[in-house]
From TrEMBL:
The lineage of its organism: unclassified sequences, metagenomes, ecological metagenomes. Keywords: Membrane, Transmembrane, Transmembrane helix. This is FHA domain-containing protein. The chain crosses the membrane at residues 6-28. InterPro entries: Cell_Proc_Reg/RNA_Proc, FHA_dom, SMAD_FHA_dom_sf, YscD_cytoplasmic_dom. Residues 94-143 form the FHA domain.
Amino acid sequence: MSELTLFVFRIAFLVLMWVFVFFVVYAVRSDLFGQRAKRLTAVPRAMSPDASAFLTQAHGVVSAPAATSSQALALVITAGPKKGERIPLGTDAITIGRASDSTLVIRDDYTSTRHAVLELRRGTWQISDLDSTNGTLVNGERISAPTAVVPGTPITVGQTVFDIREDS
């Protein structure tokens, strides 16, 4: 084997080794600090029936009737490590994930750093998956678009199951 061929193999090996190191550093960084969450686009407040139908068809927004209860609602964890915990729902969005700044912190291997967000939109609570690895399940089905959640519907994030109930 010529000296030039050996030199090319050494350089190729070093390049491959550095690529491996960069992948490892990227994986550690994303695990420690999380990946950037996508910003959800705002839906116009006043919308004609035609525009609403277009949004439903084009973007897969699933709607359900708004909750008509006059009582306050709470997020109740029904299964998982925090079973029995209640989080009162106001008008602020509830962020769900492993990140310490999340409203509902779930520390398990199946939950992403920024996993999902539950927010009040036009009088209806809707949950959106934030491109999590294992997905968010509503009533046992994985969601890909903001989905309306009526009280009593089970939501699964990682190994934790919760639903919205009237706060008593």
